[in-house]
Structures are given as C-alpha cells and as structure tokens.
Design goal:
Layout: H1 13-22, E1 35-41, E2 55-60, E3 66-67, E4 72-76, E5 85-88, E6 94-95, E7 100-104, E8 119-120, E9 130-135, E10 149-155, E11 173-177, H2 188-191, E12 192-196, E13 220-223, E14 227-231, E15 236-244, E16 249-256, E17 262-268, E18 277-283, E19 290-300, E20 305-317, H3 320-324, E21 336-347, E22 350-354, E23 367-371, E24 382-392, E25 401-414, E26 422-424, E27 437-440, E28 444-448, H4 452-455, E29 458-461, H5 468-471, H6 477-487, E30 491-493, E31 518-520, E32 523-530, E33 536-542, E34 547-549, E35 565-575, E36 593-595, E37 598-600, H7 610-627, E38 631-638, H8 643-656, E39 662-663, E40 675-681, E41 686-694, E42 705-711, E43 716-723, H9 748-770, E44 775-780, H10 788-795, E45 799-800, H11 801-805, E46 815-817, E47 820-822, E48 825-829, H12 831-834, E49 837-842, E50 878-882, E51 888-890, E52 895-899, E53 903-905, E54 910-919, E55 925-926, E56 929-934, E57 941-942, E58 947-949, E59 952-956, E60 961-962, E61 967-975, E62 985-991
Parallel strand pairs: 7-8, 14-20, 20-21, 23-25, 26-27, 30-33, 35-38, 43-44
Antiparallel strand pairs: 1-2, 1-11, 2-7, 3-6, 4-5, 4-9, 9-10, 11-12, 13-15, 15-18, 16-19, 17-18, 19-20, 21-22, 21-24, 22-23, 24-25, 27-32, 28-29, 28-31, 29-30, 31-34, 32-33, 35-50, 36-37, 38-40, 39-40, 41-42, 42-43, 44-48, 45-48, 46-47, 49-50, 51-62, 52-54, 53-54, 54-61, 55-60, 56-59, 56-62, ...
Helix pairs in contact: 7-8, 9-10
C-alpha cells in the first residue's frame, strides 16, 4: 500500500493502514504516494543473471522535492513474518520531481555490470518472490511501526502487497512500475509488469516529470490475456477487465481483428472510480482454424482510452499421421493444431498418444509425444489435445523430433482403450515409428551400458556393433559403409524418468547387465532425445518389463591354449597409491602426484580416498590373480618409481603366496605423465635377462619399457609394453593430430610418430641387447585393429596375434565406447616369435560391464559394488600363451657314457676321474654339448664347471659336435673336503643353457 510520510498522512489513517498491512494483502484505500519504488530486480546473485547486482530503483513521481532523510528500504521474504533486513537511505539526498535514485546490492560474479549506482545496500533479494518496502523510519520495521511504510511492493508469491502482488520476475526479468514509474493505483498487480530487465535508472538519468501540478491523472489499467487458444468446433472464452483509479471505465469494444464468431459478451461498465469494468471475449465453435490478432479498446467517462492486444489462435483438428507427415519435419511446424489419440505411455516430461486406427502408410508415424504435464490422463485414455506442433532438436542431434508443446486444451473422450504395438525389426529407419508403441520382434543385443547408473540407459542393436576401423582401413569405402550401418542400428533403452535413477534399472540377479546380453520382445514407445556421452538417438521408453537373457556369460578366468609361458597385458585404470584428496595408501596426508616438474594432489587420478582405493585394489588384485600370467605388462599405474607397482605386487603375493610375483625394476626413464607402464613377473617361471630398457624420447610422455625374459627351457623373448597417446582431449590438436573424421580420433599423427620411433630406434635396441629377435609388443595403443599405428608395425613384420587367434572366433574387442566395440589393447609378435605363439585371448571381465559397478563410491541410494574381478578397469586384459622353443635337448639316449674310477691326488687333495662319451647313433650330435652331473653327492663340488643347470653342475665338451661312432673323453675334478664317496648320474645335452 502506498502512502505519504507520516507528517503528510491524515490523522486516523495510520491505524487503518497498520491493520491492512497485517493481513495477506492490502486494498487501494490510501492515497497514492509521490515517492515510490519504480523498479525491483532480485536475480543478481543467481546463475544466468542478466546483471551482476540486485537493485531497487526509487522515483519521485510528485511535483515537489522529496528528501530521503529518515527513510529506509526494507526487505522480507515472500512468506516471512518479519522484515529480515533494511538499509538506511542517505539523509543528504533530495529528489527533484521526476528524478530516479538507484540503490544496488554488492557485486556478484554472474551478469553484466550495471554501471554507477547512487547508494549501496548489501541486499539479498529473492529472484522470483519477495516484499520490498520504502519506510519513513531508520529502524527495522515491526508490527508496531508498519504504519510508517510509504510504498510496498510484493511480487510473485508474496503474502503481503498493495491489493495483489506484482507478477513473478526471474533472473532475467524484473518488476517494473508502469509509465516509467508514474503509475500508482495502490495495486501491485495493476501497477507493475514483469518484463526483461533493463539497465536501471539513476539520479543523473533525465528527469521524467509525471505531473506538473495538481493531482495525478490516473490511467486506465486493462487486464487481458496476451494470447487465447481455441479449438475449431469447440471454441473458448476469456475474461477481460479494466479499471481507472479516478474515473469509471464505461466501454469495452473490439477495435480491430474481429471476425464472425468472435465477439464480446456480458459487457459490464464500472460502478464507479476504481471499480472494475468487465466483458467476456467469446471465440465461437464456428470460427475457422487460423490466427486472429485482436485489439480491444477501453474508454472511461473522462474521455480517456486504453487498449490491449490478444493473439487468438484457433486450432483445426488433424490426425496424428497428418501432423507427422512423411518428410523429416512436420508441415505444421510452429502452428497450433488439435488432434486426438489414445494415451500409450506416461513419462517424466509428458505423455505419448497414438491414432486409434493409423493411416496405413508406413512412411508416416501414427504416434506423437505431448510435452508437458500428464496430470489427469492415464494409459488407455482417448484424449483430444490442442497445442503447438514443434520440431524438437536435442543438444547434439542431427535431426529433429515432432511433438506437441504449449498445450492449451486437453479433453478426455474415453478410457480403457488398448493400442496394439507395431512390430519392428532392426536395423531399420526408426523415424517412421517415432512416438509410436512398438515391439522389437528379434532379440536386441546390449552394445553399451556406460550410462546405466547415471541415466538408466542401455544401448541396443541387432548384434554387436564393431568399430569400423577395428576391421577396415580408416577412410575406406568399407569403413564408411560400416559406420553408416552402425548409425542405423541403434536404439537406446531408457527408463522413462529422465533423471538419475535411485535404483539402477535392468541389472540381473548377479548385479550386472553385460554388453552382449540380449533382450527379447522389447515393447514400449519410441522417443527421441539426448543420450549419455553426447548426441541423441531414438530411445525406447518401455511399457512392459524388458526380458533379458544372459547370452554373454562371465568367465571366471581367461581361456587360452596351453604353452610354457603365459603373458598378459592389463590396463589397471589409474591405479594410484596417492589419492585425489591428498592422502595415500599408508594413511599419510598432504601428499601429491607428479607430472613433469609439478607435484600436487590435483595431478592424481583414480581413487579419491582410501575407501575407494581399497575397492579398486581388491578388484585389480582379483583380476590379476585370475589371469595368473607368468609376465604381466601394466598400463595406467602411478608414475612414482616402483612404489605403486611394488604395492600391487605385495597385495598379489598376499593373495597368491609369498614370492609369487616380483617387480621388473624400472628403467631410467618412465615418462613425464602421472601414469606409466610397468611389468611384473613370476620368478619361479621366468628369469630376467639383463635390465629393463625404456625410450625416454620427448615424443613418449609415457615411455615404452622392454625386458628380456628366459623360460625354464632356455627359451628367451623380449616384452615391450606401450601406452600411446590417447584419442581424446583434442584441445590444441591441429594438422595430422586434428580429428579428420576417418574414425581415428585426435592425435593420430603423434601416435604414428611414436610407433615409427618404436620401429626404427627402440625395437632394434631391444633386440641387440637381448641378442635375440623374439619380441612381443603389447599395451594400450589407443588405436584400433586397422588404424595407422598398427599397420605401421604390421608392415615392419610384427604380426597381429589378435587377428590371427581371436578374429576367427568372433569380433575382437577390449574396449566399448559409444555402444561400439573394438580392441585398443594389442599383441604383436615378431616373425621369429609368431611361430611360438600357442594362442591369444581377450578376457572380457571389464569392457562389457557397466561403469556403475566399478570401485567409485557414487552419491546415490544404491551401491552395486562387489569385490570381484569384474569392472576392475575399462579395458579388457589380453592374454598370450607362448610355447617357447627350448635352447637345449637331452641326447643321453644317443650315447654310451663310461666313467673311470675316481682317484685321490694326495698332493693337491683333489679327486679326479674321466668320462668317455661315445655317439652310438647314426647321425652326428651337434653342439655345443653339455655334460651334466645330476645328483652329485652333497658337499662335493665340480672344479672348473661351465655352469649350473637345474641345480646341477655341467661341463661344456671341447668338441663342437660328435660324429656318429666318435668318442670324447673329459676329466672331472672334484673338491671333497668330507672325503665321502662321490656319486652322480651323467647326462648329455645338446644346446645352450
């Protein structure tokens, strides 16, 4: 309620005013004030705000100067019972007639700067609902002092206002007094509008005099809808009204835009000044479909006039197939139409309806989505809907989706009606069925489950979709055709709620749903919208519980042909013993991870804290124990010397037995990234030959590492572990590193350079150090099977063992991305080693599993984590079985071995004897030949031995070979301090130990 300051207010008015203000709203009983609140904006502290401050604009609408001395601004929440804050206005300021004064809050981070202000008050106004008062007091208002209020503005859902609250503003709109601040009828609803916020006026804004002298002449204030939506054949009505505070509104007419069937009824003139005049605008059932721009005029008994504009839209009734049409976009886009159909499904943002009969045209959909509230409708209802046809294009989509919005009328015509689902066989053009109730007649395969926990989504296709460059050369016609086929072979199973589910849907009794599992007779309505990971797709909102089958069983361990050495490549998904919260696996705090020359907890990856780390550790240990390889190449382990890898070995040995695994000591260079590659091995199965090597060239921020191993039969091979530059993180990429669209992603040129250096520099170094050509290249190459980096190595003679062993049995893959499968994790063997590869497999314990079951602790109501080997990483391990050729053979059976007696040389104290070996076979025995003294008496040592084999000493015979029938004699000398009887079993081997 507006009023003058106390000294100008008639006696006796204060009691009335206080009583009025104590209620939920006031009434227009007080004379309008000269000093008023002309503009209020409370969105300045909100995200998306237009301006960076809340503000209140004051205005002198009178004809005399007004001092701000003794006055204050006060604020209360929309439903508050007390005034929560106030700010005293500067006492030295006097406003001239028509002068504004800007009071603003503190500067916020969002929004544009409003520029200079007249006065600062650290206000914090609500953006959409609240109360602001201008009071003739410098103290906070109380019930007893509310009679000092000069002007009151309640907006939105405020429980106090002048007569009725002003419309609700927002972060981008403000409450604005009409006529630039001059209008004041003591009715906030009539005096203010909520419109796009403009730059506020200040004391130096040009004066805006409202009344040169005498009383204010008030204007006609009309209340009209801005638009009116009607349905052809039904029609509609709307109430119009107007009032004038100092005159009587006595006429309401249609000034322009009227047509037959549109008219005014029940026109009632105002009963006096300040009273309402009213009329009913009727749009008849006979009015043709179309848009009509009406102008309604109002007049009063003082000769004043006002008008309002109403956009009348009359919707014609079309069938759903007519609205959908056969083109990508509806011919009725952005028009108001009426249609009817049976409700087939309710979802979080609206409902689906479908024509009862359809038009029999397979090119036009019979269903459509109605966006908005589904209140009052149920599945099976026959409804008539009037609204705007629109083409909705989700973020990242390349096509639109026809739907209804801005529903103006919804009429229930019947209930209990069923619609039979339309049978669909994939792959097909799903656009023909958008909005329809459908049933997929063939089993669909789960191709992706990455967003099951976050969005309740599963990516489905007919069969498993293979990444094109996993099979075909990038950019080739075959690759392009595969990409097109993949794009046409996808539907996303959603859960109908469009928010993060509190309970993860579609999980089997064992707590997972795997890529490769299938679902039969899937039935639901076909939606279209944004999907997890970006982009958009057709989405099936189920109307019957999906029926899944476990067609991709979990294997408890990898299955691979037997050999004598098992090698694995395992990406351990950022296994860090230092966590992102700055603590570590030993309970220390204030720790960090190193990248280049910087050490910070922000450089850490993987587990956020100890609780997550224990979960991650247990999954990885269980996974590696099940693989049970003799040698393991690791990727994505913390680059902190051998600390993280050493911790992992300790945990493995705790599960599998002391000494089961050991760390291959790191080479000098491990790269400059926070993660590195590493190796562990079983000392009882293989031994190290020399030290580990690495290539610390600047092109390798994750340096490749090589180590040569020797098996129990003497066979050697060198393992080279790699982790090439990632496909993602495209910022800064250019030239050959930019995404060319051929499927290889970003940084392809860098990956090619990395493998060229591997081919030309590092691999020759490894072979030379080992004096052996048998090399196995493994690791996360971040390139699929037929991409450039892999083909560079193939051309250099390194054979793709996954293509050799896995491809013949099905699609090879170790990674699932975007609902497509391929292998980034490789096993490439040199020509000499390839003949010794017995088998290769990928153990699908990770890539097929949902992210939702990994070690991360999410802020949801469900935790599906289990300490098992599944989803230990996002990559599947690759397991290679080697059948290394022995470097020696037992040829004892081809000889006769005669030993002389052993004599003691009393001078030297040594015991000597001879051994004569005769080749009794018909062929020469090729050397080198090794005489092994197996079971030599304990405490006796063989002098001058050439070495030990299996704990027994041996002598290398002087003959390079032994011809058929030929003999050779060697002398054996022993040290025997206990003077015991000397015994042993002589055996002859051909080859090198």
């Amino acid at each position: 309620m507006n009023m003058h300051v106390a000294m100008n207010t008639p006696a006796g008015r204060l009691t009335v005013l206080a009583a009025l203000l104590a209620g939920l709203s006031g009434s227009a009983l007080a004379a309008p004030a000269d000093l008023v609140i002309s503009h209020v904006y409370g969105g300045g502290a909100s995200a998306g705000a237009t301006y960076n401050r809340d503000f209140i604009e004051l205005f002198n609408r009178g004809s005399e100067d007004i001092s701000l001395k003794g006055k204050s601004l006060q604020y209360a929440s929309a439903t508050g019972t007390t005034w929560s804050s106030f700010g005293v206005l500067p006492e030295t300021v006097t406003l001239k007639p028509g002068q504004y004064f800007l009071v603003a809050g503190n500067v916020q981070s969002a929004g544009a700067d409003i520029g200079a202000i007249d006065h600062n008050w650290a206000m914090s106004l609500a953006a959409t609902a609240g109360r602001v008062a201008l009071a003739n007091t410098t103290s906070k208002l109380t019930d007893a002092t509310e009679n000092t209020i000069i002007d009151l503005v309640g907006y939105g859902a405020a429980n106090r206002s002048e007569t009725a609250p002003a419309p609700a503003p927002s972060t981008t709109t403000s409450v604005q007094r009409l006529a630039a601040g001059c209008t004041d009828t003591d009715n906030n609803a009539a005096d203010f509008t909520a419109a796009a916020v403009f730059l506020p006026r200040r004391s130096d804004t040009p004066l805006n005099a409202c009344k040169p002298s005498g009383p204010v002449v008030q204007e006609i204030v009309a209340t009209c809808p801005t638009s009116l939506q009607a349905e052809q054949g039904v029609g509609t009505t709307a109430l119009l009204s107007a009032r004038d505070g100092d005159s009587s509104v006595n006429s309401i007419v249609i000034e322009s835009g009227g047509v037959a069937g549109i008219g005014l009824e029940n026109v009632v003139a105002a009963s006096g000044a300040g009273a309402d005049a009213s009329a009913t605008l009727r749009v008849g059932a006979s009015v043709a479909a179309g848009s009509y721009a009406l102008r309604i005029g109002f007049g009063n008994n003082d000769g004043q006039s006002a008008s309002c504009s109403i956009a009348v839209r009359v919707a014609g009734q079309l069938t759903i197939p007519q609205i959908q049409g056969s083109e990508p976009k509806s011919a009725y886009n952005n028009t108001v139409q009426t249609t009817q159909g049976v409700v087939t499904a309710l979802v979080g943002s609206g409902f689906f309806i479908q024509d009862q009969n359809g038009d029999g045209n397979p090119a036009t959909s019979d269903g459509i989505f109605v966006f908005g509230s589904s209140a009052g409708v149920a599945v099976g209802d026959l409804v008539r809907v009037t609204g705007t046809v629109t083409e909705y294009t989700p973020s990242g989509a390349t096509r639109s989706y026809t739907e209804f919005k801005d529903i103006g009328a919804l009429t229930k015509l019947g209930s209990g009606i069923s619609i039979a689902p339309t049978n669909v066989e994939m792959p097909t053009d799903l656009a023909r069925f958008e909005g329809m109730l459908v049933r997929f007649t063939t089993p669909l395969t789960v191709n992706g489950n990455a967003y099951l926990g976050e969005r309740g989504e599963l990516t489905l296709s007919a069969g498993r979709r293979e990444i094109p460059t996993n099979r075909y050369v990038p950019g080739s016609a075959e690759a392009r055709a595969q990409a097109a086929a993949n794009a046409a072979n996808i539907v996303v199973l959603d859960d109908g709620i469009f928010t993060t589910p509190t309970t993860i849907p579609y999980l089997f009794a064992d707590g997972t749903v795997r890529s490769g599992d299938t679902v039969d007779d899937l039935t639901g309505v076909l939606d279209f919208g944004a999907i997890g990971g970006g982009g958009a797709a057709f989405k099936l909102q189920p109307t019957a519980t999906p029926r899944f089958s476990r067609t991709n069983e979990r294997l408890p361990a990898p299955q691979v042909a037997a050999g004598n050495v098992r090698v694995a490549s395992a990406n351990v998904l950022n296994f860090f013993t230092t966590f992102t919260d700055g603590s570590d696996a030993w309970g220390r705090t204030g720790q960090g991870c190193k990248i280049g020359s910087t050490t910070s907890k922000s450089n850490c990856r993987g587990a956020d804290n100890m609780a997550e780390f224990v979960r991650q550790r247990d999954k990885i240990v269980n996974s590696l124990a099940a693989i049970n390889a003799d040698v393991v190449g690791l990727m994505e382990i913390q680059n902190n010397d051998d600390i993280a890898v050493g911790y992992l070995v300790d945990q493995l040995n705790g599960k599998m037995g002391a000494g089961t695994y050991a760390v291959v000591p790191k080479p000098a260079a491990t790269g400059t990234d926070a993660i590195r590659v590493a190796m562990i091995y079983k000392p009882n199965a293989v031994s190290l030959v020399g030290s580990a090597l690495s290539d610390g060239n600047a092109i390798n921020n994750r340096a490749p590492i090589a180590q040569t191993f020797k098996a129990g039969n003497g066979g050697k091979f060198s393992l080279v572990v790699n982790h090439l530059k990632s496909k993602g993180g495209c910022g800064g990429s250019s030239g050959g590193d930019a995404d060319s669209g051929d499927g290889q992603g970003c940084w392809n040129a860098t990956r090619v350079t990395q493998v060229e250096r591997l081919r030309d520099t590092f691999l020759p170094q490894v072979k030379a150090a080992a004096n052996d050509a048998d090399v196995l290249i493994v690791g996360d190459m971040n390139a699929y099977g037929m991409e450039d980096p892999i083909r560079v190595l193939n051309a250099a003679g390194y054979e793709n063992q996954i293509e050799r062993f896995v491809r013949p049995n099905g699609t090879p893959y170790s990674y699932v991305f975007g609902g497509e499968s391929g292998y980034l994790d490789h096993a490439l063997a040199s020509t000499s080693l390839a003949a010794q590869v017995a088998g290769v497999t990928e153990w699908h314990n990770n890539a097929d599993e949902p992210e939702a079951i990994d070690y991360n602790i999410e802020a949801t109501g469900q935790d599906p984590y289990v300490a098992n080997p599944y989803r230990a990483s996002d990559h599947d391990p690759v397991v290679v079985s080697l059948n290394l050729a022995a470097t020696y053979a037992d040829v004892t059976a081809s000889t006769t071995i005669a030993r002389s007696g052993i004599t003691l040389n009393r001078v030297s104290g040594k015991y000597t004897g001879t051994v004569t070996i005769t080749n009794k076979s018909a062929a020469a025995l090729n050397g080198p030949l090794q005489l092994v003294l197996q079971g030599l008496t304990a405490g006796v040592t063989l002098d001058g031995k050439s070495g030990d084999q299996g704990g027994a000493p041996y002598l290398t015979l002087p003959n390079a070979s032994l011809a058929a029938g030929a003999s050779v004699t060697v002398t054996t000398t022993f040290t025997n301090p206990s003077k015991t009887s000397i015994g042993y079993t002589p055996t002859l081997f051909s080859g090198t130990f």
